[in-house]
Every structure is written in structure tokens, then in C-alpha cells.
Specification:
- This protein has 22 helices and 7 strands.
- The protein is mainly α.
- Helix 1 packs parallel to helix 4 and helix 14 packs parallel to helix 16.
- The radius of gyration is 30 Å and the shape is globular.
């Protein structure tokens, strides 16, 4: 790494904060507060990730972690800035992901057309070919934006429908182009194109590992867009268009021209991202590249303070929204590790909903004095949010807190659901704001105290449940002279009851002996015993006299638990 990665990250944050300080016509007081809140949230997520990550990657491998985080953030920022301009102008662009895949494919296709032998043999294609391919791709990006503007302004399609069409169509078109061009130029149809030119790959820092290229590019683009939106008449017209299109048209603003500009900026930046992605990955794969990225771009801009109704939003807020989104996703991947990508869509969706809710309702509620959960629909919403909180805690919270709390997913979900229900009832009440605030403080203290108390008593509860299962089967749980725990299962014990007990027996400090004599336990029960004590290895003696286990099952168990004495 040629320059410290931390400096790159600081540059992005300072660029956002610096633009806020230089503004004259840009963010309002609410926007500034929102951005400061995002900065605080980013550092809070950093702290929580460092605390919960068992490897503490942000401390022990800070350079690698921040390189990856910054690389992902800059790539997301490019398309988020384009989405923000369109949203500010009162539109929506759903095609960013497909435009990225299409632009990557077109850039690689140009290289195949201009230097087929070099591409086929993984040789350098030359600076001239690289420049021509990039320029051609960017021109096509502008043409895509122009197509969107024409469909919206002249044909009269809603922005959602116009960009949805290219979302679906461009990816298929890019695949058809790749297959036909490779068939004609490389002697065989391919679904992807590999580009090995080191000079081209270094555009994204893929060879040296640097992130300065991407960081400087994002900062330059951000400053240009901030100047456009904050310091020019065109920027004021874009905000006016998003605020009230009819009023903007009646005031003499060329609304069709403004829409063309907004959608061209979005498609142009998506094309830039597509070029950088194929540079970084060295392959243009229209089938898989950038799937769902348009939603992440919209999410980043909305989290950053853009209103989906148009007329509101800032460039610094969008940058911070992209950084916050990536920090959260990166934090979850570091804590959960395996299978973290399963929850990425859930996290993005929840963040978008909460961002829109909390940026929109505060002003609306204060002006109209409406209750947030009024009427029958309010009660249904309370039930929905309560269930959602419980399910999210069971799925995501249990993984985030695994190994740090004693409670299982069911207990965590119950506490989260109960706490959410109480909070929503407080919000629904007709009490004064000061009273609600006091109730909220009491709720927070009570929730924390309940969670801590439940976690402290959870092992004792599970031990009691294990004793109850043993007694129901006709057995008992005792302690021998050496301090070890002896679990004696009665003759009524089955494989099912044994498995239920084994789920709870780990909460005893030292289980040294299991007595399964005269039970109907089979080899299935022995497999459960092996899994339960494979890590703890506290079990020293097992009595299976008169049970239904086989010699093969005993041999298999001894291989799993070495040193185990099995009777008879």
C-alpha cells in the first residue's frame, strides 16, 4: 500500500463535512442535524463492531479492513450520487445495476473489437484501446440517460416504468452482445469477457491495492455535483422540479431539460462504476455483476436524507449515507462471518424504512398533531412491528450476540418483541410529550435491566428444565463426591427426551457421567451425545446397560469422545 488507508477514509469524511461548512444555499438546519447524526451513527457502528467481533479486525487488521470498506464505499457512492440527483429532481432510477453490468460489458466488448488477439491471449491491449473503450462506454451511458428522459418527458411513462424497462432489458441485451461479439471475434461464444491488461486494472487500484484512485474520483465527482446543486441556477431548478413540477414549469423552468440532465448524470456515473468494476474484477459478467445495486444506491441516498417525494437531499448526506450503509453491512459480516450475505437485503430494507420514517414523521407529526399509530390500522401496524422485531432478533440478533449472551434465539426474540410492543404503546398513547419522554427513559432502563437479568438467570432456568426432564423420565440429576454432575435417566427416557435434555445439560458446570441403563435409547441418542460433548469433553463415563444401542454406535461415539468409558 503506497499511502495510509486511514488517510483515504478521513478524506472522504472531511470532504463531506467540508462541503457542509462551505455551503451557502445547500443544506438546511434539519439536513445538518441529519448528517451529524449519521457521523455519530457511523462511529457507533465502528465501536460496536470492534466490540462484538471476536477477532477485532478493525484493530488487529485495520489496514486490510479499511481498504475493503473504503473500496466498497466509493463504488457505492458513485451510483448513490447519481441516484440522489434523480431523486432530488423528483424522479427514480431503477436501472443503475443493469447500467453497470451493461457498461462493463460494452467496455470489454470494445476492447475485444479493437484488440481481439490481445484479449484472447490475456495480453495488454494498449493505452489507445483503453481510452477509446472508456470514452465509448461513457457516451453510451449518456445515451441511456437520454433514453430515460425521452421515455419520461415525451412518451409520458412514469419514471418507475421507464427505468424498470431498462433494468430488465439491458442485462439481457449485454449478454446477447457479449455472446455474439466473442463468437465473431474470438472463435467461440462466451458469457463473459476477461480483461487482463494491468494498466486498465490499475484504474481501480486492483493491482497495487491502493484506494486513492477511487477516493479522489469520488471526491471530485462529489464537489462537482455539490457545486452544481448548491451554487448554480441549474441546481436550484433541479430542487424546484423535485419540489413541485407544475409550479416549476409555470415559473419558466425547462423541466424536460432538467430531467434529461438528472438522468444523464445518473447513467453516466453508473457507466463509470461499470468501467471500474470490470477493471477491479478483470471480468465482465452481465449475468451476475451489480445485481440489486440500484436498490443499494437508492437506500444510500435515502438514508443520507434524500426525500423520495423530491426536492430534498444533499451530496454530503448521500456520501455519509453510503458510508453508513457499508459500515453496517461490513460490521455484520465481521461479526456473523459465515452466511452474512443472507442478511444484507434485510439490513438494507430495514435501514431504508427507518430512515424514511424518522426523517419524514417528525416534521409531519409536529405540524399536524396526528398520532403515529391511530385507528385500527395503527393497531395492526403495532402487531406487525412487534412480530418483525421478534423475528429479526431471532434471526440476526442471535447470530450477532452468539457466544456473548446465554439466552437462545427464542428468549432474545421474546424480550425484543415485548420491549417493542411497550415502546409502540407509549408512542400511541395520548400523554403529553414530556410524559412520553419520561416513560421512554423508564422503558429503556427497564428493557436493559430485564435483558441483563434474564441473561443472568437463563442458565439456572435451563438447569431446572434439565432436572425436570430427567425426573419426568424417572431419573435424577445428582452430584458425585468429585464435584461432577451425574445425569441418571430413568427407564421412560426416549431419544427425543434425551435430545431435549442435552440442549440444556451444557449449562451444568461439569457433567461427567450419563446413565442410560434400561432405557430405550438408540444409536440416534448416542449421536446426539457425541455432538453435545464434542467441544466440552467433560463426559468421562457412559452407562448404556440394557439400552437399545448397538456396538457400532458405541464405537462411533468413542471415536468422537476419546477417553470415554462405556459400560458395559
Amino acid at each position: 500500500m503506497d499511502l495510509p488507508v486511514v488517510a483515504s477514509l478521513v478524506v472522504m469524511i472531511l470532504a463531506s463535512v467540508g462541503i457542509i461548512g462551505l455551503r451557502r444555499f445547500a443544506a438546511s438546519t434539519n439536513a445538518e442535524r441529519h448528517q451529524l447524526g449519521l457521523i455519530a451513527a457511523i462511529f457507533f457502528v465502528f465501536f460496536c463492531t470492534t466490540l462484538l467481533d471476536e477477532h477485532h479486525n478493525y484493530v488487529t487488521r485495520w489496514d486490510v479492513s479499511l481498504v475493503d470498506l473504503l473500496r466498497q464505499t466509493t463504488m457505492l457512492s458513485l451510483i448513490a450520487l447519481g441516484a440522489a440527483v434523480v431523486i432530488i429532481a423528483g424522479g427514480i432510477d431503477l436501472s443503475a445495476g443493469s447500467v453497470i453490468a451493461f457498461s462493463a460489458s460494452i467496455c470489454a466488448t470494445f476492447m475485444v473489437l479493437l484488440a481481439p488477439e490481445a484479449v484472447n491471449q490475456s495480453l495488454p491491449v494498449g493505452a489507445g484501446v483503453i481510452v477509446a473503450s472508456i470514452v465509448g462506454t461513457l457516451i453510451i451511458g449518456i445515451l441511456i440517460g437520454s433514453l430515460h428522459a425521452w421515455l419520461i418527458t415525451e412518451v409520458g411513462l412514469p419514471p418507475f416504468v421507464a427505468t424498470l424497462g431498462t433494468l430488465v432489458g439491458l442485462r439481457s441485451l449485454s449478454r446477447a452482445i457479449v455472446e455474439n461479439v466473442t463468437q465473431a471475434m474470438l472463435g467461440g461464444a462466451r458469457t463473459q469477457i476477461n480483461i487482463a491488461d494491468k494498466s486498465f486494472r490499475e484504474l481501480s487500484g486492483a493491482i497495487s491495492g491502493t484506494v486513492w484512485n477511487l477516493t479522489i474520483l469520488v471526491v471530485i465527482v462529489s464537489v462537482i455535483l455539490w457545486l452544481l446543486l448548491s451554487k448554480t441556477i441549474t441546481g436550484r431548478h433541479l430542487y424546484a422540479l423535485g419540489g413541485n413540477e407544475q409550479a416549476a414549469r409555470l415559473s419558466g423552468i425547462q423541466t424536460n431539460r432538467m430531467k434529461w440532465l438528472a438522468y444523464c448524470i445518473s447513467s453516466f456515473l453508473s457507466s463509470v462504476a461499470g468501467i471500474l468494476y470490470v477493471s477491479q474484477l478483470s471480468v465482465a459478467d452481465p449475468q451476475t455483476l451489480a445485481r440489486g445495486y440500484e436498490l443499494n444506491a437508492i437506500a444510500a441516498s435515502v438514508v443520507g436524507g434524500c426525500s423520495l417525494q423530491g426536492g430534498l437531499g444533499t451530496i454530503p448526506g448521500t456520501l455519509l449515507g453510503a458510508l453508513f450503509l457499508r459500515v453496517v453491512i461490513d460490521g455484520v459480516s465481521k461479526i456473523i462471518k459465515t452466511g452474512a450475505d443472507v442478511y444484507e437485503g434485510l439490513i438494507v430494507g430495514v435501514l431504508v424504512v427507518f430512515a424514511v420514517t424518522f426523517t419524514k414523521t417528525s416534521e409531519a407529526m409536529s405540524s399536524t398533531r396526528r398520532k403515529l399509530f391511530s385507528g385500527p390500522l395503527g393497531w395492526v401496524t403495532i402487531v406487525n412491528l412487534t412480530l418483525l422485531a421478534g423475528v429479526m432478533m431471532a434471526l440476526l440478533g442471535a447470530k450477532l450476540l452468539r457466544g456473548r449472551v446465554h439466552m437462545d434465539a427464542a428468549w432474545l426474540a421474546s424480550i425484543a418483541a415485548a420491549a417493542t410492543l411497550l415502546l409502540l404503546l407509549i408512542l400511541r398513547s395520548e400523554a403529553a410529550q414530556l410524559t412520553k419522554r419520561n416513560w421512554g427513559i423508564t422503558w429503556a432502563v427497564a428493557t436493559i435491566a430485564t435483558a441483563i437479568g434474564a441473561d443472568m438467570n437463563y442458565p439456572q432456568f435451563q438447569r431446572g428444565a434439565a432436572v425436570a426432564i430427567a425426573r419426568k423420565a424417572g431419573g435424577a440429576v445428582t452430584q458425585n463426591d468429585d464435584g461432577g454432575i451425574v445425569v441418571d435417566l430413568g427407564s421412560r427416557c426416549t431419544d427425543a427426551s434425551l435430545k431435549r435434555l442435552l440442549q440444556r445439560v451444557r449449562y451444568f458446570p461439569n457433567v461427567t457421567e450419563l446413565r442410560l441403563n434400561n432405557t430405550v435409547i438408540t444409536d440416534s441418542g448416542l449421536d446426539a451425545i457425541g455432538k453435545a460433548f464434542q467441544e466440552a469433553k467433560s463426559l468421562k463415563r457412559l452407562d448404556v446397560t440394557g439400552s437399545k444401542v448397538s456396538e457400532i454406535g458405541i464405537v462411533k461415539l468413542k471415536r468422537t469422545l476419546t477417553g470415554l468409558e462405556v459400560l458395559p
